[in-house]
Amino acid sequence: MLSEEIFSNVLLMLLCYAYVLAIIVVSGKIDKILDVSRKSARKFLHIMIGNLPFIIPFFTLAIFPVLVAAPFIVLTLLASPYSPFKIVSKRMKGLADITEEGHQLGLVFYAISYTCLALLFASKAYIIAAGILPMAYGDAAASMVGERWGRRKYSLVAQKSLEGSAAMFIFSFISLAVGMVFFSFIYHFALLDKIVAAAAASAVATAVEAFSPMGFDNLTVPALSVLVFLLYGGGL
After folding, report:
1. Structural domain containing residue 58
2. How far apart (Å, rounded) are the C-alpha atoms in residues 92 and 98?
3. Among 13, 23, 184, 232, which is 20 to 30 Å from 30 by CA?
4. What is the mean pLDDT of the chain?
């Protein structure tokens, strides 16, 4: 029955909300619990939220993945320095601190990317993953590796390191390859074709991350990674 289908989708959506809110709470406290930097807390948030595409195949109505992502555009904007309601950002201090430590609108762009990809590709979650996983795992690895071990610096738009860019490609590809293996059991596609598309998407994500201004990579990386993934046959 339709009512049962709606109920199951609403329940899964609420579980996604609970997961994201739990990650936000943990991210706001993890620096004190594990004695790590606020930047590391922000990357933890990016990575963990980046796992949501693995849940999307279990929705049976396409609107619900969009409804999972869209409210967080408003939530992250209200928590950012650009919030029109400063009292709201103060009440969401944990998320606000993570946002301000980052690139101010970075988390807003992250939520926008999620929402747009969910709107376009809810029936094929592996395409959403092609945009989200490089941003979640690749970008986080690039930042942490570059900060700690980056010695060979270069500057296009912002200063980067060859070590960080190498980490971006490696972790983007690994996360996408693992993701495609997971999705192959659900969508029953030819895995080799997706791995080739994943490699191309990872290479482009690495280049795009190097050229993107601070924070805007949360828009450019998902968009262009998905585009290249599709061009290389990943969406078939």
Report:
1. 2-231
2. 10
3. 13
4. 85
